Structure formats: C-alpha cells, structure tokens
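Posting this for the archive.
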Amino acid sequence: MPQIEASLAERLGYAADTRLLIVNCDDFGSSHAANSAILRALDHGVATSATLMVPCPWARDAVRRAEGRDVGVHLTLTCEYPGYRWRSLTGAKSLHDDDGFMPATVEAVYARADPSEAFEECKAQIVQAMDWGLQPTHLDSHMGTVQIDPRFFDIYLGLAEAFDLPLRMVSEKQDVQLGLQGRERASSRGLLFNDHFVSPWPRDTREVIDERIPHLKPGVSEIYAHPVEDGPELRAYDPDHPDIRANDAIVLTDPAVAQFMDAAGVVRIGWRPLRDLQRAERGR
C-alpha cells in the first residue's frame, strides 16, 4: 500500500488530531503604540508571533525591543492612513502615489506597480530587517497585497523560497476562489504554510475567537489581530478603525481568552517551529 504522507502537525511532533493555533499580531513597527501593545500581547497574552512593517518609522524600535521573540516580515506595498504616510525603501517610482508615498489601496498598487520593482522592494524589506538583527520566522502580506494577485503572488513564493521562510496562506476555500493554486505551488517548492486561516477583520476579534476556536480542524491554524494601545497616537493616525485596534490590545491580553483557548483544547505555537522544520526538510 502507498505510504500516507504525515500531516504538518505530525511533522511538528504532535498527534495527527492536534489543533495548533498561531496567534499573529500584524503591523508591528507601524507605531510606538502598536509596538507596546504587541509586545505585551506576546509576553503576557495569547499572541505567539508578530510581523514587522519594515518601511514604517517605528520598525527599528520594534526590532530593538523584540529580541528573541517570534517575528516575521509583513511585506508592505501600501500605506492606508490619510495623514500618516511612508515611502518604499527602494524609491521605485511605480511604488508611489502622486504625493510620493506608497499607495493607500491594494487596487492602486495593482494599477501602478511594476512587479519587478515590487519584488525588489519586498526583498529589500526582508534584507533590511535582517541587517537590523532580526531572524525572520515567516512572511505575510500587509493588506494581502502580495497574496491575491497572480503577478504579486509569484513574488511572495519567490521570496519565501529565496529566504527559506514559511508563509501565511489564505484559506483553502479562498485559494480555490483566487485560482492561484497557491497551496499546491508552495508545497511543490518545499514551503510550509498554515493549514487553516481565520480572518477576523473587521469584526470584533473576541466574537470571532468565541465562534471559531472551539471548532478548529486538526492541523495548524492562524488567526491574526492588530493590537494598538489606545490613546492620542492611535486616534490621530487611524481615524477610521481605532476601536478595532484598541479592542484587539485588550482581547489578546485578557486572561479569560487564554483560559477559553485552553479549555477548547488548542495548542498555541509560533511560526518558528514551521521555519525550523521547513529548513530541516529542505536540507538548509
């Protein structure tokens, strides 16, 4: 009989029916308030990893304060806030809007960006993070920009392979809808990714946790949030969604949430075990 391939959970050293959960904090480095909230969620809450927005002004502070923690790179080609803007690292013209900043929307990126320049920018973000001393655990994408368009998904896979990093993958259902064959293509390159994906935005993260966590399937799931300390900084730069971000900071550090996850029988892990397994399996 043909041998059945071991599941990702089994390859990580768990039983096949184990429900593993990565709780990722997006937008690390986007502000001082985000950095403080994310570090608190990692050290005293349920968060198990974070992803760094390298072009943002507070990214260097995030790396300085994040030593030893599970941090990946949040590949960034957009800048969505009306009065708080940043530019690319490479300065490529196609990656900026008429005001000279990264575009505010994913659609604007797709309309303007030269994919080759986007590749070089994303590569520069990873290299810059590493030059600062970060040892990235994984890759994901700010606003999903390099995950949902075929031209940019090629960038995503190429960089994951080049730097030998696992990557966040959309759900199986969305992968089929996008028609990218992303999971199949990533697997064929020896890249690891989450089996399942829970996306709360823009709903209340606690409500989504209550609904989805008890019913997670076996394997590795990821849920993300955007914790930011409430206050003048947050309210100034994100006038559209400050309550979501402030609420995430509360939810991810609420002891009741940790107790709820434990009672549901899920095991929280970071991305580091996936990175180390991927490199071991690929012989790196």
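The two ends are 31 Å apart (CA to CA). The chain has a mean pLDDT of 97.
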